[in-house]
Write a structure and sequence with these properties.
Blueprint lengths: L3 H16 L3 H13 L1 H24 L1 H7 L1 H25 L13 H13 L2 H10 L11 H28 L2 H5 L2 H23 L6
Length: about 210
Amino acid sequence: MFPTEVLIAYVAAALVVVLAPGPDNILAIGRGLSQGPVAAALSSIGAGIGIMVHTLAAALGLSLVLQATPAAFWVVKGVGAAYLLWLGFKAVRSRDLITFEPARQAPLRRVFTVGVLSNVLNPKPGLFVLAFLPQFVSSARGSVATQMLVYGAIFAVLTAVIFTVLGSFAARLSAWLARRPRVGTGLNIGAGLTFIASGLSILALKARA
């Protein structure tokens, strides 16, 4: 069901996608910088769970339904864009995504929840999964749904592991960054603007993109 050459090609392609800058890995790196490896790992695992939610939706055909139903697609797109815009404005205004003041740091439960929601409420990963995974699936090799779920699980694990590593490495810079508040301010603003740009790009999505 999963030929070696297909798996190698899939993992290579997935690695390129995971390493590309985006809201989820920026979130994990920000958590690592301000709250350490555990917070980075929780944010990363949340992103991986989000990938699995999108994969399950694609395997069940829900993503196709959303694309074929303009009203439903607009609702999902609006909610996802609003959430990322809110994260962005919050990071720019409050500057607490990367902070070394314990009272301003998010509880670990919220770190995990935000990691999940920032992925699940973003329709772009869902559309990507719907377009990306079927390229490696063949009905001649067995259940299409099973293949989709396995490929999605691989993508989710790669996401969680790589984001955790990035966030853990970032955590090593926390002591240096704590002594340079202006750099922290710049990183918060940069991360916030990235979230805002992602939210605006979601608003520009078309159902059949």
